[in-house]
Amino acid sequence: MTDEPLLRVSALSKFYGSRVGCDNVSFDLWPGEVLAVVGESGSGKTTLLNCLSTRLLPSSGTASYRMRDGQFRELYRMSEAERRFLMRTDWGFVHQNPADGLRMTVSAGANVGERLMAVGDRHYGKIRATAVDWLSRVEIEEDRIDDEPRAFSGGMRQRLQIARNLVTGPRLVFMDEPTGGLDVSVQARLLDLLRGLVTDLGLAAIVVTHDLAVARLLSQRMMVMKDGRVVESGLTDRVLDDPRAPYTQLLVSSILQV
Amino acid sequence: MTDIATYNFAYLDEQTKRMIRRAILKGIAIPGYQVPFASREMPMPYGWGTGGVQVTASIIGPDDVLKVIDQGADDTTNAVSIRAFFKKVANVAVTTDTATATIIQTRHRIPEHPLTAGQVLVFQVPIPEPLRFLEPRETETRKMHALEEYGLMHVKLYEDIAKHGRIATTYAYPVKVEGRYVMDPSPTPKFDNPKMHRSPALQLFGAGREKRIYAVPPFTDVVSLDFEDHPFEVQTFDQPCALCAAENVYLDEVILDDHGGHMFVCSDTDHCEKRRADGHRGHLAPDTHPASENMEPAQ
Protein backbone atom coordinates (compact mmCIF):
# COMPACT_ATOMS: atom_id res chain seq x y z
CA MET A 1 0.00 0.00 0.00
CA THR A 2 1.14 3.46 -0.79
CA ASP A 3 1.41 6.12 1.83
CA GLU A 4 -0.34 8.75 -0.25
CA PRO A 5 -4.10 9.27 -0.29
CA LEU A 6 -6.16 8.67 -3.42
CA LEU A 7 -8.38 11.68 -2.95
CA ARG A 8 -7.74 14.85 -0.98
CA VAL A 9 -10.71 17.03 -0.23
CA SER A 10 -10.22 20.37 1.37
CA ALA A 11 -12.81 22.91 2.55
CA LEU A 12 -15.40 21.87 -0.02
CA SER A 13 -18.59 23.92 0.05
CA LYS A 14 -21.62 24.06 -2.16
CA PHE A 15 -24.30 26.69 -1.78
CA TYR A 16 -27.58 26.77 -3.62
CA GLY A 17 -28.14 30.53 -3.51
CA SER A 18 -28.18 31.29 0.19
CA ARG A 19 -28.96 27.71 1.13
CA VAL A 20 -26.20 25.40 2.24
CA GLY A 21 -25.67 22.17 0.32
CA CYS A 22 -22.52 21.15 2.12
CA ASP A 23 -20.19 23.38 4.04
CA ASN A 24 -16.45 23.20 4.58
CA VAL A 25 -15.95 19.45 4.19
CA SER A 26 -12.38 18.15 4.31
CA PHE A 27 -11.06 14.60 4.33
CA ASP A 28 -8.55 12.28 2.72
CA LEU A 29 -9.50 8.97 1.17
CA TRP A 30 -6.89 6.24 0.97
CA PRO A 31 -6.59 3.48 -1.63
CA GLY A 32 -8.75 0.48 -0.77
CA GLU A 33 -10.67 2.36 1.88
CA VAL A 34 -14.44 2.53 2.11
CA LEU A 35 -15.80 5.74 3.56
CA ALA A 36 -19.45 5.95 4.53
CA VAL A 37 -21.22 9.30 4.57
CA VAL A 38 -24.31 9.08 6.77
CA GLY A 39 -26.96 11.53 7.84
CA GLU A 40 -30.64 12.22 7.45
CA SER A 41 -32.23 13.39 4.19
CA GLY A 42 -31.28 16.94 3.38
CA SER A 43 -28.03 16.74 5.34
CA GLY A 44 -25.97 17.37 2.20
CA LYS A 45 -24.51 13.94 1.68
CA THR A 46 -25.70 13.57 -1.91
CA THR A 47 -24.57 17.11 -2.71
CA LEU A 48 -21.15 16.19 -1.37
CA LEU A 49 -21.08 13.02 -3.46
CA ASN A 50 -22.13 14.87 -6.60
CA CYS A 51 -19.42 17.49 -6.04
CA LEU A 52 -16.77 14.84 -5.50
CA SER A 53 -17.79 12.94 -8.61
CA THR A 54 -17.74 16.27 -10.55
CA ARG A 55 -21.38 15.92 -11.45
CA LEU A 56 -21.77 19.25 -9.65
CA LEU A 57 -19.23 22.03 -9.35
CA PRO A 58 -18.69 23.22 -5.77
CA SER A 59 -18.94 26.88 -4.77
CA SER A 60 -15.52 26.76 -3.15
CA GLY A 61 -12.87 24.34 -1.98
CA THR A 62 -10.67 21.88 -3.77
CA ALA A 63 -10.46 18.15 -4.38
CA SER A 64 -7.45 16.49 -5.93
CA TYR A 65 -7.24 12.95 -7.17
CA ARG A 66 -4.13 10.85 -7.57
CA MET A 67 -4.15 9.65 -11.18
CA ARG A 68 -2.72 6.30 -12.23
CA ASP A 69 0.59 7.95 -13.01
CA GLY A 70 0.86 9.01 -9.35
CA GLN A 71 0.30 12.72 -10.04
CA PHE A 72 -2.36 14.61 -8.13
CA ARG A 73 -4.80 16.48 -10.33
CA GLU A 74 -7.17 19.18 -9.16
CA LEU A 75 -10.59 17.83 -10.17
CA TYR A 76 -12.33 21.11 -10.80
CA ARG A 77 -9.54 22.38 -13.03
CA MET A 78 -9.59 19.40 -15.36
CA SER A 79 -11.24 19.80 -18.73
CA GLU A 80 -14.66 18.28 -19.18
CA ALA A 81 -13.18 15.70 -21.57
CA GLU A 82 -10.67 14.58 -18.91
CA ARG A 83 -13.34 14.41 -16.23
CA ARG A 84 -15.65 12.36 -18.39
CA PHE A 85 -12.80 10.04 -19.30
CA LEU A 86 -11.97 9.58 -15.62
CA MET A 87 -15.64 8.96 -14.94
CA ARG A 88 -15.83 6.03 -17.34
CA THR A 89 -12.45 4.47 -16.66
CA ASP A 90 -10.97 5.05 -13.23
CA TRP A 91 -14.22 5.84 -11.45
CA GLY A 92 -17.62 4.31 -11.05
CA PHE A 93 -20.92 5.78 -9.95
CA VAL A 94 -23.63 3.51 -8.58
CA HIS A 95 -26.96 5.31 -8.52
CA GLN A 96 -29.70 4.61 -6.02
CA ASN A 97 -32.13 4.03 -8.88
CA PRO A 98 -30.51 1.60 -11.35
CA ALA A 99 -32.53 3.12 -14.21
CA ASP A 100 -30.37 6.26 -13.83
CA GLY A 101 -27.15 4.34 -14.26
CA LEU A 102 -28.17 1.77 -16.84
CA ARG A 103 -29.28 1.95 -20.44
CA MET A 104 -32.64 0.32 -20.02
CA THR A 105 -33.21 -0.38 -23.72
CA VAL A 106 -29.99 -2.22 -24.50
CA SER A 107 -29.10 -5.71 -23.34
CA ALA A 108 -27.31 -6.53 -20.11
CA GLY A 109 -24.23 -7.57 -22.06
CA ALA A 110 -24.07 -4.26 -23.91
CA ASN A 111 -24.57 -2.39 -20.64
CA VAL A 112 -21.51 -4.08 -19.21
CA GLY A 113 -19.59 -3.77 -22.47
CA GLU A 114 -20.29 -0.08 -23.06
CA ARG A 115 -17.37 1.17 -21.00
CA LEU A 116 -15.02 -1.25 -22.73
CA MET A 117 -16.16 0.00 -26.12
CA ALA A 118 -15.87 3.58 -24.88
CA VAL A 119 -12.19 3.08 -24.13
CA GLY A 120 -11.59 1.58 -27.56
CA ASP A 121 -12.21 -2.16 -27.26
CA ARG A 122 -13.26 -3.32 -30.72
CA HIS A 123 -13.32 -7.10 -30.42
CA TYR A 124 -16.86 -8.44 -30.01
CA GLY A 125 -15.80 -11.86 -28.71
CA LYS A 126 -13.58 -10.40 -26.01
CA ILE A 127 -16.16 -7.82 -24.94
CA ARG A 128 -18.77 -10.54 -24.64
CA ALA A 129 -16.47 -12.85 -22.70
CA THR A 130 -15.72 -10.03 -20.26
CA ALA A 131 -19.45 -9.32 -19.93
CA VAL A 132 -20.19 -12.99 -19.19
CA ASP A 133 -17.44 -13.03 -16.58
CA TRP A 134 -18.75 -9.90 -14.86
CA LEU A 135 -22.35 -11.06 -14.90
CA SER A 136 -21.30 -14.25 -13.13
CA ARG A 137 -19.33 -12.23 -10.60
CA VAL A 138 -22.47 -10.29 -9.71
CA GLU A 139 -24.52 -13.51 -9.68
CA ILE A 140 -26.55 -12.93 -12.84
CA GLU A 141 -27.04 -16.09 -14.89
CA GLU A 142 -25.23 -16.17 -18.20
CA ASP A 143 -28.41 -16.82 -20.17
CA ARG A 144 -29.73 -13.39 -19.15
CA ILE A 145 -26.94 -11.61 -21.03
CA ASP A 146 -29.12 -10.65 -23.98
CA ASP A 147 -32.09 -9.54 -21.88
CA GLU A 148 -32.79 -5.88 -21.34
CA PRO A 149 -32.55 -4.56 -17.77
CA ARG A 150 -36.26 -3.77 -18.00
CA ALA A 151 -36.85 -7.50 -17.63
CA PHE A 152 -34.73 -7.63 -14.45
CA SER A 153 -35.81 -7.39 -10.83
CA GLY A 154 -34.68 -4.43 -8.73
CA GLY A 155 -31.88 -6.40 -7.10
CA MET A 156 -30.63 -7.74 -10.42
CA ARG A 157 -30.65 -4.27 -11.92
CA GLN A 158 -28.56 -2.98 -9.05
CA ARG A 159 -26.08 -5.83 -9.46
CA LEU A 160 -25.94 -5.18 -13.20
CA GLN A 161 -25.23 -1.53 -12.50
CA ILE A 162 -22.36 -2.55 -10.25
CA ALA A 163 -20.92 -4.85 -12.92
CA ARG A 164 -21.21 -2.09 -15.53
CA ASN A 165 -19.21 0.23 -13.29
CA LEU A 166 -16.52 -2.20 -12.27
CA VAL A 167 -15.72 -3.65 -15.69
CA THR A 168 -12.94 -1.17 -16.44
CA GLY A 169 -11.26 -1.87 -13.09
CA PRO A 170 -11.88 1.52 -11.48
CA ARG A 171 -9.97 2.56 -8.36
CA LEU A 172 -12.71 4.72 -6.86
CA VAL A 173 -16.44 4.07 -6.81
CA PHE A 174 -19.12 6.47 -5.64
CA MET A 175 -22.31 4.89 -4.36
CA ASP A 176 -25.49 6.74 -3.61
CA GLU A 177 -27.75 4.61 -1.38
CA PRO A 178 -26.79 1.42 -3.25
CA THR A 179 -29.28 -0.67 -1.29
CA GLY A 180 -32.12 1.84 -1.19
CA GLY A 181 -35.48 0.45 -2.19
CA LEU A 182 -34.47 -3.21 -1.96
CA ASP A 183 -36.01 -5.66 0.46
CA VAL A 184 -33.87 -6.87 3.33
CA SER A 185 -32.86 -10.30 2.01
CA VAL A 186 -31.85 -8.80 -1.35
CA GLN A 187 -30.04 -6.02 0.51
CA ALA A 188 -28.11 -8.56 2.51
CA ARG A 189 -26.95 -10.43 -0.59
CA LEU A 190 -26.03 -7.21 -2.36
CA LEU A 191 -24.02 -6.01 0.64
CA ASP A 192 -22.28 -9.35 0.82
CA LEU A 193 -21.44 -9.09 -2.87
CA LEU A 194 -20.25 -5.49 -2.60
CA ARG A 195 -18.08 -6.30 0.40
CA GLY A 196 -16.49 -9.19 -1.48
CA LEU A 197 -15.84 -7.11 -4.60
CA VAL A 198 -14.43 -4.18 -2.69
CA THR A 199 -12.03 -6.46 -0.81
CA ASP A 200 -11.03 -8.52 -3.84
CA LEU A 201 -10.42 -5.55 -6.10
CA GLY A 202 -8.94 -3.24 -3.48
CA LEU A 203 -11.47 -0.56 -4.44
CA ALA A 204 -11.78 2.71 -2.65
CA ALA A 205 -15.38 3.73 -2.25
CA ILE A 206 -17.44 6.58 -0.92
CA VAL A 207 -20.85 5.28 0.08
CA VAL A 208 -23.66 7.65 0.86
CA THR A 209 -26.36 6.04 2.97
CA HIS A 210 -28.86 6.80 5.65
CA ASP A 211 -28.75 3.18 6.75
CA LEU A 212 -26.27 2.77 9.58
CA ALA A 213 -26.25 -1.01 9.16
CA VAL A 214 -25.01 -0.60 5.57
CA ALA A 215 -22.30 1.75 6.79
CA ARG A 216 -21.30 -0.70 9.53
CA LEU A 217 -21.03 -3.61 7.09
CA LEU A 218 -19.26 -1.89 4.22
CA SER A 219 -17.12 0.88 5.57
CA GLN A 220 -14.00 1.26 7.62
CA ARG A 221 -14.44 4.94 8.19
CA MET A 222 -17.48 7.13 8.49
CA MET A 223 -18.53 10.75 8.36
CA VAL A 224 -21.76 11.92 9.96
CA MET A 225 -23.36 14.95 8.32
CA LYS A 226 -26.00 17.31 9.60
CA ASP A 227 -27.22 20.50 7.88
CA GLY A 228 -24.38 20.35 5.37
CA ARG A 229 -21.62 20.07 7.96
CA VAL A 230 -19.61 17.11 9.13
CA VAL A 231 -20.48 16.69 12.81
CA GLU A 232 -18.38 13.65 13.52
CA SER A 233 -15.95 11.39 11.70
CA GLY A 234 -13.84 8.43 12.64
CA LEU A 235 -13.56 4.67 12.39
CA THR A 236 -16.98 3.20 11.74
CA ASP A 237 -17.01 0.95 14.80
CA ARG A 238 -15.86 3.74 17.04
CA VAL A 239 -18.51 6.18 15.75
CA LEU A 240 -21.30 3.65 16.03
CA ASP A 241 -20.28 2.14 19.37
CA ASP A 242 -19.15 5.32 21.04
CA PRO A 243 -20.87 8.27 19.37
CA ARG A 244 -19.66 11.60 20.69
CA ALA A 245 -21.61 14.32 18.92
CA PRO A 246 -25.13 14.68 20.25
CA TYR A 247 -26.57 14.29 16.78
CA THR A 248 -24.68 11.03 16.22
CA GLN A 249 -25.92 9.76 19.57
CA LEU A 250 -29.46 10.56 18.46
CA LEU A 251 -28.90 8.86 15.13
CA VAL A 252 -27.45 5.70 16.66
CA SER A 253 -30.17 5.47 19.29
CA SER A 254 -32.83 5.88 16.59
CA ILE A 255 -32.09 2.48 15.07
CA LEU A 256 -35.04 0.19 15.51
CA GLN A 257 -34.16 -2.85 17.57
CA VAL A 258 -35.95 -6.00 16.51
CA MET B 1 -47.84 32.52 -63.35
CA THR B 2 -45.55 30.02 -65.07
CA ASP B 3 -43.07 32.79 -65.64
CA ILE B 4 -39.62 32.19 -64.23
CA ALA B 5 -39.49 35.83 -63.16
CA THR B 6 -42.08 35.01 -60.51
CA TYR B 7 -39.31 33.47 -58.45
CA ASN B 8 -35.84 34.46 -57.41
CA PHE B 9 -33.33 32.24 -59.20
CA ALA B 10 -33.56 28.73 -57.69
CA TYR B 11 -36.53 29.69 -55.49
CA LEU B 12 -34.62 30.76 -52.35
CA ASP B 13 -33.80 34.43 -51.77
CA GLU B 14 -30.16 35.45 -51.98
CA GLN B 15 -29.72 36.02 -48.23
CA THR B 16 -30.95 32.51 -47.50
CA LYS B 17 -28.66 31.01 -50.11
CA ARG B 18 -25.77 32.95 -48.62
CA MET B 19 -26.57 31.60 -45.16
CA ILE B 20 -26.80 28.03 -46.48
CA ARG B 21 -23.55 28.39 -48.43
CA ARG B 22 -21.80 29.50 -45.26
CA ALA B 23 -23.13 26.40 -43.51
CA ILE B 24 -21.94 24.26 -46.43
CA LEU B 25 -18.48 25.82 -46.34
CA LYS B 26 -18.23 25.22 -42.63
CA GLY B 27 -19.36 21.63 -43.16
CA ILE B 28 -16.67 21.13 -45.80
CA ALA B 29 -14.06 22.64 -43.50
CA ILE B 30 -15.00 20.21 -40.71
CA PRO B 31 -15.81 16.94 -42.50
CA GLY B 32 -18.66 15.06 -40.88
CA TYR B 33 -19.59 17.82 -38.43
CA GLN B 34 -23.27 18.72 -38.35
CA VAL B 35 -23.63 22.46 -38.94
CA PRO B 36 -26.90 23.97 -37.73
CA PHE B 37 -28.63 26.22 -40.26
CA ALA B 38 -31.85 28.19 -40.46
CA SER B 39 -33.84 25.76 -42.56
CA ARG B 40 -36.63 27.43 -44.57
CA GLU B 41 -40.13 26.33 -45.30
CA MET B 42 -40.11 24.75 -48.74
CA PRO B 43 -43.10 24.12 -50.99
CA MET B 44 -43.05 20.44 -50.03
CA PRO B 45 -43.54 18.51 -46.79
CA TYR B 46 -40.71 17.65 -44.41
CA GLY B 47 -39.42 14.21 -45.24
CA TRP B 48 -39.63 14.81 -48.99
CA GLY B 49 -36.19 16.28 -49.30
CA THR B 50 -36.51 19.84 -48.00
CA GLY B 51 -32.90 19.74 -46.78
CA GLY B 52 -31.51 18.41 -50.05
CA VAL B 53 -33.55 20.90 -52.08
CA GLN B 54 -32.23 23.84 -50.05
CA VAL B 55 -28.65 22.67 -50.50
CA THR B 56 -29.18 22.17 -54.23
CA ALA B 57 -30.88 25.56 -54.56
CA SER B 58 -27.93 27.23 -52.87
CA ILE B 59 -25.23 25.71 -55.05
CA ILE B 60 -26.95 25.46 -58.41
CA GLY B 61 -26.03 27.87 -61.21
CA PRO B 62 -27.47 28.44 -64.70
CA ASP B 63 -24.84 26.16 -66.28
CA ASP B 64 -25.41 23.21 -64.00
CA VAL B 65 -26.94 19.96 -65.16
CA LEU B 66 -29.16 18.43 -62.51
CA LYS B 67 -30.00 14.78 -61.90
CA VAL B 68 -32.37 13.72 -59.13
CA ILE B 69 -32.77 10.16 -57.96
CA ASP B 70 -35.07 8.59 -55.43
CA GLN B 71 -33.93 5.17 -54.18
CA GLY B 72 -31.76 5.01 -57.29
CA ALA B 73 -34.61 5.70 -59.70
CA ASP B 74 -34.96 8.78 -61.91
CA ASP B 75 -38.64 8.14 -62.57
CA THR B 76 -40.35 8.12 -59.17
CA THR B 77 -42.60 10.89 -57.89
CA ASN B 78 -40.06 12.57 -55.64
CA ALA B 79 -37.33 12.58 -58.29
CA VAL B 80 -39.60 13.77 -61.08
CA SER B 81 -41.11 16.54 -58.94
CA ILE B 82 -37.80 17.92 -57.69
CA ARG B 83 -36.35 17.84 -61.19
CA ALA B 84 -39.40 19.67 -62.51
CA PHE B 85 -39.13 22.15 -59.64
CA PHE B 86 -35.58 23.18 -60.51
CA LYS B 87 -36.34 23.22 -64.19
CA LYS B 88 -39.04 25.73 -63.40
CA VAL B 89 -37.38 27.91 -60.77
CA ALA B 90 -33.79 27.84 -62.08
CA ASN B 91 -34.33 26.98 -65.72
CA VAL B 92 -31.41 24.55 -65.58
CA ALA B 93 -30.74 21.58 -67.79
CA VAL B 94 -31.81 18.27 -66.26
CA THR B 95 -30.67 14.79 -67.08
CA THR B 96 -30.94 11.20 -65.94
CA ASP B 97 -27.38 10.46 -67.07
CA THR B 98 -25.04 10.14 -64.09
CA ALA B 99 -21.90 10.97 -66.03
CA THR B 100 -23.06 14.28 -67.48
CA ALA B 101 -24.78 15.61 -64.36
CA THR B 102 -22.90 18.25 -62.36
CA ILE B 103 -25.23 18.09 -59.36
CA ILE B 104 -26.98 14.89 -58.34
CA GLN B 105 -29.57 15.18 -55.62
CA THR B 106 -30.22 11.78 -54.14
CA ARG B 107 -32.56 10.13 -51.75
CA HIS B 108 -30.88 7.05 -50.31
CA ARG B 109 -28.58 5.82 -53.08
CA ILE B 110 -25.22 6.60 -54.61
CA PRO B 111 -25.21 5.96 -58.38
CA GLU B 112 -23.44 2.85 -59.63
CA HIS B 113 -21.51 4.83 -62.25
CA PRO B 114 -18.37 6.12 -60.51
CA LEU B 115 -18.56 9.83 -59.72
CA THR B 116 -15.85 12.15 -60.93
CA ALA B 117 -14.11 15.26 -59.68
CA GLY B 118 -16.30 18.32 -60.06
CA GLN B 119 -19.56 16.50 -59.46
CA VAL B 120 -21.59 17.25 -56.34
CA LEU B 121 -23.77 14.65 -54.67
CA VAL B 122 -26.52 16.14 -52.48
CA PHE B 123 -28.10 13.76 -49.98
CA GLN B 124 -31.55 14.17 -48.45
CA VAL B 125 -31.23 13.34 -44.77
CA PRO B 126 -34.12 12.56 -42.44
CA ILE B 127 -32.22 12.19 -39.13
CA PRO B 128 -28.66 13.51 -39.23
CA GLU B 129 -27.66 12.38 -35.74
CA PRO B 130 -26.24 8.82 -35.79
CA LEU B 131 -26.44 8.62 -31.99
CA ARG B 132 -30.06 9.78 -31.78
CA PHE B 133 -31.75 6.44 -31.14
CA LEU B 134 -29.24 5.62 -28.42
CA GLU B 135 -29.13 9.03 -26.75
CA PRO B 136 -32.23 11.18 -27.12
CA ARG B 137 -30.75 14.39 -25.66
CA GLU B 138 -29.33 16.74 -28.29
CA THR B 139 -27.20 18.52 -25.64
CA GLU B 140 -25.61 15.18 -24.77
CA THR B 141 -25.03 13.99 -28.35
CA ARG B 142 -23.35 17.28 -29.24
CA LYS B 143 -21.09 16.89 -26.24
CA MET B 144 -20.33 13.32 -27.29
CA HIS B 145 -19.32 14.52 -30.76
CA ALA B 146 -17.26 17.33 -29.27
CA LEU B 147 -15.39 14.99 -26.95
CA GLU B 148 -15.22 12.17 -29.51
CA GLU B 149 -17.06 9.77 -27.18
CA TYR B 150 -18.27 7.20 -29.65
CA GLY B 151 -18.40 4.05 -27.54
CA LEU B 152 -22.17 4.18 -27.69
CA MET B 153 -22.18 3.72 -31.47
CA HIS B 154 -20.50 0.37 -30.98
CA VAL B 155 -23.10 -0.54 -28.37
CA LYS B 156 -25.63 -0.49 -31.19
CA LEU B 157 -23.47 -2.76 -33.34
CA TYR B 158 -22.89 -5.03 -30.31
CA GLU B 159 -26.64 -5.31 -29.87
CA ASP B 160 -27.00 -6.30 -33.52
CA ILE B 161 -24.50 -9.13 -33.18
CA ALA B 162 -25.97 -10.27 -29.85
CA LYS B 163 -29.46 -10.41 -31.35
CA HIS B 164 -28.80 -11.54 -34.91
CA GLY B 165 -25.35 -13.09 -34.89
CA ARG B 166 -24.03 -10.43 -37.25
CA ILE B 167 -24.20 -6.68 -37.74
CA ALA B 168 -27.76 -6.45 -39.00
CA THR B 169 -27.74 -2.71 -39.73
CA THR B 170 -28.21 -2.53 -43.50
CA TYR B 171 -28.83 1.15 -44.10
CA ALA B 172 -27.81 4.38 -42.37
CA TYR B 173 -24.71 2.46 -41.38
CA PRO B 174 -22.51 4.72 -39.23
CA VAL B 175 -19.19 5.88 -40.64
CA LYS B 176 -16.21 7.74 -39.25
CA VAL B 177 -15.14 10.66 -41.40
CA GLU B 178 -11.46 11.58 -41.67
CA GLY B 179 -10.78 9.76 -38.39
CA ARG B 180 -12.82 12.24 -36.37
CA TYR B 181 -16.60 12.63 -36.60
CA VAL B 182 -19.03 9.74 -36.63
CA MET B 183 -21.62 10.47 -39.29
CA ASP B 184 -24.91 9.08 -40.52
CA PRO B 185 -24.55 8.61 -44.28
CA SER B 186 -28.35 9.10 -44.54
CA PRO B 187 -30.42 5.95 -45.10
CA THR B 188 -28.38 4.74 -48.06
CA PRO B 189 -27.85 0.97 -48.07
CA LYS B 190 -24.51 0.08 -46.53
CA PHE B 191 -23.70 -1.27 -49.99
CA ASP B 192 -22.95 2.35 -50.93
CA ASN B 193 -20.71 3.12 -47.94
CA PRO B 194 -17.46 2.09 -49.69
CA LYS B 195 -18.31 4.48 -52.55
CA MET B 196 -18.10 7.41 -50.13
CA HIS B 197 -14.53 6.57 -49.15
CA ARG B 198 -12.09 8.90 -50.95
CA SER B 199 -14.74 9.76 -53.52
CA PRO B 200 -13.55 12.40 -56.02
CA ALA B 201 -17.00 14.04 -55.86
CA LEU B 202 -18.08 16.51 -53.18
CA GLN B 203 -20.80 15.03 -50.96
CA LEU B 204 -23.24 17.38 -49.21
CA PHE B 205 -25.95 16.36 -46.76
CA GLY B 206 -29.02 18.42 -45.97
CA ALA B 207 -31.57 17.71 -43.24
CA GLY B 208 -34.40 20.23 -43.54
CA ARG B 209 -36.56 19.29 -40.60
CA GLU B 210 -33.61 18.77 -38.26
CA LYS B 211 -31.89 21.91 -39.62
CA ARG B 212 -28.45 20.43 -40.13
CA ILE B 213 -25.98 20.44 -43.00
CA TYR B 214 -22.84 18.32 -43.17
CA ALA B 215 -20.33 17.45 -45.83
CA VAL B 216 -17.67 15.05 -46.99
CA PRO B 217 -15.11 16.87 -49.17
CA PRO B 218 -13.53 15.02 -52.12
CA PHE B 219 -10.89 12.42 -51.31
CA THR B 220 -11.86 12.17 -47.64
CA ASP B 221 -11.56 8.98 -45.63
CA VAL B 222 -14.97 7.49 -44.82
CA VAL B 223 -14.66 4.31 -42.79
CA SER B 224 -17.60 2.15 -41.74
CA LEU B 225 -17.54 1.21 -38.05
CA ASP B 226 -17.18 -2.46 -37.16
CA PHE B 227 -15.63 -4.97 -34.77
CA GLU B 228 -12.30 -6.70 -35.33
CA ASP B 229 -14.00 -10.09 -35.31
CA HIS B 230 -17.11 -8.87 -37.16
CA PRO B 231 -15.71 -6.73 -39.97
CA PHE B 232 -17.89 -4.45 -42.08
CA GLU B 233 -19.25 -6.09 -45.18
CA VAL B 234 -21.70 -5.01 -47.86
CA GLN B 235 -24.81 -6.81 -49.03
CA THR B 236 -24.27 -9.43 -51.70
CA PHE B 237 -26.86 -10.75 -54.12
CA ASP B 238 -26.93 -14.31 -55.33
CA GLN B 239 -28.32 -13.43 -58.73
CA PRO B 240 -27.64 -10.70 -61.29
CA CYS B 241 -30.13 -8.02 -62.36
CA ALA B 242 -33.05 -9.72 -64.13
CA LEU B 243 -33.11 -7.07 -66.86
CA CYS B 244 -29.48 -6.17 -67.56
CA ALA B 245 -27.58 -9.06 -65.92
CA ALA B 246 -25.42 -6.63 -63.93
CA GLU B 247 -23.51 -8.11 -61.01
CA ASN B 248 -22.06 -6.34 -57.99
CA VAL B 249 -24.74 -3.67 -58.10
CA TYR B 250 -27.51 -2.94 -55.60
CA LEU B 251 -30.74 -4.72 -56.54
CA ASP B 252 -34.39 -4.01 -55.69
CA GLU B 253 -36.93 -6.75 -55.39
CA VAL B 254 -39.90 -6.14 -57.65
CA ILE B 255 -43.13 -8.08 -57.11
CA LEU B 256 -44.55 -9.21 -60.45
CA ASP B 257 -47.88 -10.78 -59.51
CA ASP B 258 -49.80 -11.95 -56.48
CA HIS B 259 -48.62 -15.55 -56.81
CA GLY B 260 -45.17 -14.98 -55.37
CA GLY B 261 -43.57 -13.98 -58.66
CA HIS B 262 -40.75 -11.50 -58.22
CA MET B 263 -37.51 -10.38 -59.77
CA PHE B 264 -34.40 -8.52 -58.71
CA VAL B 265 -33.51 -5.50 -60.79
CA CYS B 266 -30.95 -2.71 -60.55
CA SER B 267 -32.03 -0.02 -58.14
CA ASP B 268 -30.09 2.47 -60.30
CA THR B 269 -32.40 2.85 -63.32
CA ASP B 270 -29.93 4.92 -65.33
CA HIS B 271 -27.26 2.26 -64.94
CA CYS B 272 -29.69 -0.49 -65.94
CA GLU B 273 -30.93 1.34 -69.04
CA LYS B 274 -27.41 2.08 -70.21
CA ARG B 275 -26.41 -1.54 -69.89
CA ARG B 276 -29.44 -2.72 -71.81
CA ALA B 277 -28.75 -0.14 -74.51
CA ASP B 278 -25.28 -1.66 -74.71
CA GLY B 279 -26.85 -5.03 -75.38
CA HIS B 280 -26.72 -6.67 -71.94
CA ARG B 281 -29.73 -8.88 -71.27
CA GLY B 282 -30.92 -10.44 -68.05
CA HIS B 283 -33.00 -13.60 -67.88
CA LEU B 284 -36.30 -11.68 -67.65
CA ALA B 285 -35.44 -8.98 -70.17
CA PRO B 286 -37.67 -8.81 -73.22
CA ASP B 287 -35.83 -9.43 -76.48
CA THR B 288 -37.23 -6.26 -77.97
CA HIS B 289 -35.35 -3.01 -77.73
CA PRO B 290 -35.71 -1.71 -74.17
CA ALA B 291 -37.11 1.63 -75.36
CA SER B 292 -40.36 -0.04 -76.37
CA GLU B 293 -40.72 -1.92 -73.10
CA ASN B 294 -43.53 -0.55 -70.97
CA MET B 295 -41.50 -0.82 -67.74
CA GLU B 296 -39.37 2.05 -68.98
CA PRO B 297 -39.91 5.51 -67.56
CA ALA B 298 -42.04 7.71 -69.74
CA GLN B 299 -39.81 10.71 -70.18
TrEMBL record, chain A:
Q: Name one GO molecular function term.
A: lyase activity
GO biological process: what's one of them?
Answer: organic phosphonate catabolic process
Q: PROSITE patterns, from UniProt?
A: ABC_TRANSPORTER_1, ABC_TRANSPORTER_2
Q: Which family does it belong to?
A: Belongs to the ABC transporter superfamily.
Keyword annotations of the record: ATP-binding, Lyase, Nucleotide-binding
A Pfam family hit? ABC_tran
Q: Does the keyword S-adenosyl-L-methionine apply?
A: no
Q: Which organism is it from?
A: Mesorhizobium intechi
| CDD domains linked to this entry | ABC_NikE_OppD_transporters (cd03257)
Q: What is this protein's record name? A: Phosphonate C-P lyase system protein PhnK
Q: Where is the ABC transporter domain?
A: 7-252
